[in-house]
Amino acid sequence: MVTLELSPIASKPTGQLTSRILVIEDEDLIRNMISLNLEEEGYQVTKTSNGREALNLLERQGNPTENQEFDMIILDLMLPEVNGLDICRLLRHKGNHIPILILSAKAAETDRVLGLEVGADDYLTKPFSMKELIARCRALIRRNAINNSPSENLKQYKDITLFPDECRVTVRNKPVNLSPKEFKLLELFMTYPKRVWDRDQLINNIWGADFLGDTKTVDVHIRWLREKLELDPSNPEYIITVRGFGYRFG
Fold first, then answer.
1. Position 53 in a domain
2. Quick one: average pLDDT of 12-36?
3. DSSP at 150
4. Any idea which UniProt keywords this protein has (predicted)?
5. Half-sphere CA count of 59, side-chain side, radius 13 A
6. What is the dihedral of CA 210, 219, 239, 156, to 10 degrees?
7. DSSP 8-state symbol, 167
C-alpha cells in the first residue's frame, strides 16, 4: 500500500483554468487524490488507469472536436497494456514535447536516471507530498509556457524572423543556417532598417576595429547572406546595394 502525505488546502485555487493535466495512474486511491487536489488548485484534470487509453487520449490532441490539449502529464510506470516508460519513449519519438512528471514507487537511482533518459522532465517517488507534487506541476507548466512563448526580442521583416536569444533565423517559415558573422550582419541590418552602412562601418561592428583583413570580405558575406535569404539573389529585396555608399536592409 502506497501512502500519501496529504496536506489540507489552505488557500484559494492558484492554477490556471486553461491548464490541463493528464493523470495516468492505475491505483485508484492515488489517482483520485491527485485529481482532487489538482482540481482544488484550479487545474482541469483528465485521468485514466490504462496505458493504451492514455495513448488514445494523447493521439487526439490537436483535433478541435476533441478539446484535449494537455499541458502536462503525471505518469505512473507500472500500467496495464502499455507501461509508462514506453509511453514516454513513444511520445518523444513522435516529437511530442509535452512536460512529463514520472510518479513511481521505483526509487533506485538507476530507475530515476532511466526515466529521465527516455524523456521525462521530472521524477517523483512514492510516497510523496501533495504540496511538492503540485509545486512541481506548476514549475513544469510555467517553464514549458516560457520556452514556447515567442521571444520579446525577436526581429521581423516581411518573411524573415530573427530570434536573437536563440541565435536562429527563419525565412518564409523555414529555418536557415547562418554562420556567426552572417547572423551578426543580419541582426545589425534588422536592428537599423533602411540605414546605409559602408564597408568600414560593417567591419568595425561585426569584425572589430582591429580586423586586418580585406574589406572585400564584407561583399563576400553579403553575397552568402543573399543566397540564403533572397528568392532571387541577383535581384535582392532585403539587402540592397546603394552604389557608391554601401548596403542597406529593406
1. yes
2. 81
3. P
4. DNA-binding, Phosphoprotein, Two-component regulatory system
5. 8
6. -40
7. T
